[in-house]
Structure prediction request, 357 residues.
Amino acid sequence: MERLIDKSAVLMICVLAFVLSGDYIGPVAALLASVSVSALIQLFSGRRAAWVMIAGCAVVSGLFPLFFCAFPLIFLDALYEKKWWLALPAVTVLGEVGQLRTEQFIAALVGMAVALIMYLRISALEATVGNLKSLRDEVTEKNMQLAGQNIRLAEAQDNEVHLATLKERNRIAREIHDNVGHMLTRSILQTGALQIINKDEKLKEPLNDLKNTLDGAMSSIRTSVHDLHDDSIDLKKTIEEIIAAVDSRFDITLNYSAGGNIPGNVKLCVAGIVREGVSNCVKHSDGDRINIVFLEHPAFYQLLIEDNGSSAAHNDGSSHGIGLKNMEDRASSVGGRITFTHTEKGFRIFMTIPKEQ
Prediction:
């Protein structure tokens, strides 16, 4: 649209140059031809055909001075096509400038000057728009990066809060175990001692009731302490700590994808098998890579531990069989199933644990 508006302004100057000729037939024909060619140039903008037409019009304007009156229109097209040098053949009109009236020649030059000014104005505007778009894109990118950083910070804060909560639960469990548990244990022992030395028949039943009450309280506290301790286990962090303690000759990768509502007995089972499995790899494997995968599915948990050691290396060592038996016992304790496979790529431990329905 900007190009059409600029062409309309330049066309008015070209019409003025033709009117100053004092004739009608020749100027009208030249004007219509120039307008038609200019429309074709815009239609084929950016193509070789448009550039050929610009060069052809420049040659014609140089050979036939009457067409030079409409050349500002073609010159504007050459500027928009970024091919201004295609208009240079029109300079040859200077050899035939005597065929034009001075007013016509001046009007044509003014039209070319106006076309150049308009193009420079549009170019500056386009450059400003381009800079604004670049700035907008940069701001959008920065906002996206900032949003990503905010999400990561929020996740890090949530993780810190979660770890702090787990540590506090663990501390409370220790406090209950070390203080209340020991006091109840002492009270139970004291009650038992009183029952032994008591000779009064009237106190036997109250002492039995007291001992039963203390036993019930002790059982309740023991259950609560175990639940708090199990909930305080961060399985992913535990596995990462196991990995961090492995010999540096192993390159270990961990793929962990599970929620935070894993039962405590499952956490202990998985952590124990990962510790035993990685320990066996370190002791018996002649490979240098260990891959650990723990995934939570809708109906079960899945654990995979594999290395790239040879089968012969894993078959060595008398303690290896005990380690496998321990892992089988751990898996069966939570209703899981575990398999051990020697493959061409190494040794694989695969376990599935069904979720409680």
